[in-house]
Design brief:
With 95 residues, this protein is mainly alpha-helical. It has helices at residues 3-27, 34-61, 66-90. The chain is 82% helix and 0% strand.
Length: 95
């Protein structure tokens, strides 16, 4: 997969994750006890911050020289995997 295709695919994945986070936030408006709501709101905020950081990093990857691209892509992939694992572990059950 080329650089442009990879970036486009990851943009879509990051966008989908943003939609999932927003969907869970909307569900917190329903009947949820206050302690759970505070806990989940904090978790979602942390996940959203990390998602936004990855989104920003994805945009800057396009400017990197070819020699650095594969190393940075691998690093990005690891961070994406960690973010998705945290999402599943912390709030994924609420979807």
């Amino acid at each position: 997969m080329g650089r442009a295709d990879y970036q486009e695919e990851m943009r879509h994945r990051l966008q989908d994750l943003g939609f999932s986070i927003a969907r869970i936030r909307r569900r917190l408006g329903g009947p949820v006890d206050d302690r759970t709501k505070v806990d989940l709101t904090g978790r979602l905020a942390g996940l959203e911050r990390r998602r936004e950081q990855l989104e920003h990093r994805l945009e800057t990857l396009g400017d990197e020289p070819d020699g650095a691209w594969s190393r940075l892509k691998n690093q990005f992939d690891l961070e994406w995997f960690d973010l998705m694992q945290d999402f599943e572990d912390r709030v994924g059950r609420l979807l």
